[in-house]
Specification:
There is one protein chain. By secondary structure, the protein is of the alpha/beta class. About 30% of the residues lie in helices and about 25% in strands. The longest helix is centred in the C-terminal third of the chain and has 13 residues, at about 295-305. The structure holds nicotinamide-adenine-dinucleotide and zinc ion (2 copies). One zinc ion binds near residues 92, 94 and 95.
Length: about 350
């Protein structure tokens, strides 16, 4: 089959690789109809996350079930399914407590970051514990919405839920990439009075205008001063970090009010990050950080999409054939031409 393979920083290639195969009798094989590129793939693309050369990339994919293992009953060949970015065994206490990223049995829980769980930017993808992980796509949910529900839709909702937003609050979302735009939409569901979007790419700030009450261009103004002005000097009740950089992490501590909450979904794999203890202490701040547990949020998000309260499909701005993945990576990385989500079809 053909797949997008990581060879090094800025070096992804479409290659012929061995066909994906069932892991065991609880797994399934999905023929991928579309996959996408996430900001998390960019951390690999930038060489910031160690990857074994030859790893098949991608953790966002939808498709049709091709084959199931002998113990699989509730998933059938021919079913239209969504492959969640993170998977678990479905049996351990972490999986049962709905934090599959902490699964005690599976070694690899995120697709496309190691050869143990090859990714969805391919013609086929093998999925462990298929009955637990694979989700049939409801008939009223479009392919585009389903694709964005594999990761970034749930991530945005998780970010907003973790931000403790109450009606009338002031909320800042730092980063208006696809994840930040999903977080803005989700934050709006909790009825904040001010919803402030921060980025430094003009097209993305324009996209944020649909959901935000204020948009702040971090390349042109002092964001902390602007947030103080919008919040009458108090700072924001909740700040969502959807970038994943030391600079924006620090900014969140500046923007949050005393007693407020910082909700981090941006991926910053730096255990040596200097947590600003002094500021946190003086501000009585709550900080939540985590990886989204996609499957846990899907029933609720299918409902929100069907009710028209969450609109993800318009984030798909560009379409490419799988062969053109290197070009798609370059475009998504440079954020040129209003690119938000790319649709890769094998
Ligand atoms: P993206 O790279 O497309 O978007 C990042 C945005 O941040 C861009 O629009 C960029 O202009 C903006 N930005 C960068 N530096 C900035 C600064 N100093 N000030 C203001 N804005 C700045 O990525 P994405 O797909 O939207 O993903 C965002 C983050 O979420 C990534 O770190 C990704 O790894 C992470 N992520 C986390 C989870 C999770 O489960 N926690 C899931 C999916 C993605
Ligand atoms: Zn992702
Ligand atoms: Zn488990």
């Amino acid at each position: 089959m053909r797949a997008v393979v990581w060879h090094g920083a800025s070096d992804v290639r479409v290659e012929r690789v061995a066909d994906a195969a069932l892991f065991d009798d609880r797994s399934a094989l999905v023929r991928v109809e579309a996959s996408s590129i996430c900001g998390s793939d960019l951390h690999l693309y930038h060489g910031l996350v160690p990857v074994i050369p030859g790893t098949i990339l991608g953790h966002e994919g939808i498709g049709t079930v091709e084959e199931v293992g002998g113990a699989v009953r509730r998933v059938r060949p021919g079913q239209r399914v969504l492959v969640p970015a993170v998977v678990g065994c479905g049996e351990c206490s972490s999986c049962r407590e709905s934090y599959v990223v902490g699964c005690e049995q599976l070694v690899a829980k995120v697709f496309g970051v190691s050869p143990l769980l090859p990714g969805a930017q391919a013609e086929m993808v093998a999925v462990p514990a298929a009955e637990f992980n694979l989700r049939p796509i409801p008939a009223e949910v479009s392919d585009e919405d389903a694709l964005l529900l594999t990761d970034i839709g749930p991530t945005g909702f998780y970010a907003a839920r973790n931000a403790d937003i109450r009606p009338g609050d002031s909320v800042v979302v730092v980063g208006c990439g696809p994840v930040g735009l999903c977080a803005l939409q989700s934050a709006a569901l909790f009825s904040p009075a001010q919803l402030i979007a921060v980025d430094r790419v003009r097209d993305r700030l324009e996209a944020a205008r649909r959901f935000a009450t204020h948009v702040l261009d971090a390349s042109a103004l002092d964001v902390a001063a602007a947030v103080r002005e919008v919040t009458a000097g108090r700072g924001a009740d909740a700040v969502i970090e959807a970038v994943g950089s030391t600079e924006t992490m620090r900014l969140c501590f500046e923007l949050v009010r005393i007693g407020g909450t910082i909700s981090v979904v941006g991926v910053l794999i730096r255990d040596d990050f200097p947590f600003p203890m002094g500021t946190a202490l003086l501000k009585d701040v709550t900080v939540r950080v985590g990886l989204v547990n996609v499957g846990h949020f899907l029933p609720r998000l299918f409902g929100l999409v069907r009710a028209g309260r969450l609109s993800l499909a318009p984030l798909v701005t560009h379409r490419f054939a799988l062969e053109e993945a290197p070009q798609a990576y370059r475009l998504f990385d440079t954020r040129a031409d209003g690119c938000l989500k790319v649709w890769l079809h094998p």
